[in-house]
Amino acid sequence: MKAVGVTRHPPGKKLSREEFEELLKSAGYEVLEIVEQVRVEHPKFNIGPGKLREIKKLVEELKPDRVIFANKLTPSQAYNLWKELGVDVMDRWQLVLEIFEKRAHSKEAKLQVELASLHYEVPLVREAIRRVKLGDRAGFKGMGEYQTRQYLRHIRYRMGRIRKELERVKADREVKRKRREEVGFILIALAGYTNAGKSTLLNALAGEEIEARDQMFTTLDTTTRRFKLGGKRVLLTDTVGFIDGLPPFIVEAFHSTLEEIIKADIILLTLDVSEPWKEIKRKFRASVNVLRELKTLDKPILIVLTKCDLTGEEDVADKRGRIEEAAEELGTNVMAVIQVSAKLGQLGELYEALENVVLTLPKYRLFRVFIKEPEKVPQVVSLLNSIGEVLDISYGEETLIDSYIQSGMIKELTRLGVRIRPLNKTRSEDHYQ
Ligand SMILES: Nc1nc2c(ncn2[C@@H]2O[C@H](COP(=O)(O)OP(=O)(O)OP(=O)(O)O)[C@@H](O)[C@H]2O)c(=O)[nH]1
Ligand SMILES: [Mg+2]
User: Fold this and answer.
1) For residues 47 and 410, what is the distance between their CA atoms, to the nearest angstrom?
2) Ligand 1 atom, smallest distance to 306 CA
3) Which of 417, 425, 426, 406 has its CA nearest to residue 372?
4) DSSP H helical segments within 329-376, as ranges?
5) Ligand nearest 307 Cα, by number?
6) Domains of the chain (ranges plus CATH)?
């Protein structure tokens, strides 16, 4: 498919040309030309009427299959442009959805993409119905008025069905997550801009081989893998990447996937440090905005600078300093800024930071365990070390063990026939005393 791209830069806010080209390429388009304009939004066409004439000429000469905007178009702008240009017109979010459609493998991802696409179509179809009423002949995509109305009814019905199915998937996941928590897993979620290196990091940490490629939105499905952090049981989840201004309807459609971030104990926010500072800053802001929308900014966050092997040490140090400064705005829940290279297996700093953060999680509390039978001690100590951290053991008539323990694991411990008393302290309280 051939496309002509159009970017309207709002005055004072230049949109990234590379990112737009990357999106077009990821969707599989051959880009014939990219037309750019700096201008405030024109209500009828988004771009200015003069630019529109220029594009019309280009369309006649180059005969693209589509004209694709880097901007968001209102339904009425999309309709007007389609009528003026006589060729399919798409905006930024339709382009993103087209890529999503290509990459969705699991049933859940497919349903989520379909829901988002239908959601997107509703106002377009409504606009077409409005126009037909005003005397335009063609309805949505050339359908007549009756067909267009039928189509709108179909969309609404289908959206209802998908929402129900996704609710079921969500409930399933919830059950799985509960089970994992009950056996003492710590949940860590990878988050960050698309192509930041999330899947590659999961592969390096968990010894996996999930698809990682230099293209946008490689991952749409959620993958969860176990990995070892000292003796602790940890689950790491990789999900869909973020993009600038991710609209609420996509966030809503992908809610069951993004819930892996919402339910995580710790978030690893990845940033590709090999990019120019301006890009890093933009992507950092965009990622923070999504995390804010997901109401997850109060969780422990580790900012992970990825791909350190692609740039010099000084450059990394400089950008790290700037990110540390930018992260201050986010408050004390940003536990550290870390640098890694998944390619070279340089992950030491990340392991270390994670080990420190894990025990500060509110679900770890200090308990005293009383054991009557000495032969039980090794088994209890080993369990305690996998679900917490043993601080002190004193042997006597009864063995006393002071240990941090995940509160959810108390039941499992009492099954071993030991007594447990809370010492009412979390690790973080201890830490700052
Ligand atoms: N040199 C180098 N390349 C890396 C590193 N980490 C990731 N990459 C490359 O960066 C590209 C994107 O990596 P992915 O792991 O697919 O990124 P992602 O964040 O999962 O991307 P999406 O799933 O598209 O959101 C791939 O070509 C990786 O090989 C690294 O540490 N060093
Ligand atoms: Mg990925």
Assistant:
1) 62
2) 31
3) 417
4) 348-358
5) 1
6) 2-90 (3.40.50.11060), 101-165 (no CATH), 184-358 (3.40.50.300), 364-431 (3.30.70.240)
Whole-number Å distance, alpha carbon 291 to ligand 2 midpoint, is: 17
Name 392's Cβ contacts closer than 8 Å, sequence gap at least 6.
400, 401, 402
How far does residue 209's CA lie from ligand 2's centre (Å)?
11
- pLDDT of residue 181 exceeding 80, the answer is no
Residue nearest to atom 6 of ligand 1 (CA): 197
Please report how many Cα atoms fall inside a 13 Å half-sphere around the Cα of residue 163, on the Cβ side. Answer: 10
343 lines ligand 1 (CB under 6 A): yes
| pLDDT for 427 | 53
As a whole number of angstroms, the distance between CA 95 and CA 78 comes to 13
Ligand 1 atom closest to the CA of 203, numbered from 1: 15
Alpha carbon separation from 92 to 23, 27, 72, 73 (Å, rounded): 9, 11, 6, 8
Token output for 146: 């009756």
366, two tokens = 């200090």
CA distance to 128, 218, 296, per residue, from 264 (Å): 43, 22, 9
Yes or no: say if 259 and 291 are a contact pair by the CB < 8 Å rule: no
Q: What is the pLDDT of residues 213-270, one digit of tens each?
A: 888 888 888 888 988 787 788 899 998 999 987 788 888 888 878 888 999 999 999 9
| pLDDT reading at 364 higher than 70 | yes
Which phi and psi angles does 12 have, rounded to 5°? 85, 0
Burial, 392: exposed, middle or buried (Cβ in 10 Å; 0-12, 13-18, 19+)?
exposed
Q: Note the pLDDT tens digit of each residue in 187-226.
A: 999 999 999 999 999 999 988 888 888 888 888 888 889 8
CA-to-CA separations, 278 to 272, 310, 323, in angstroms, rounded: 12, 17, 12
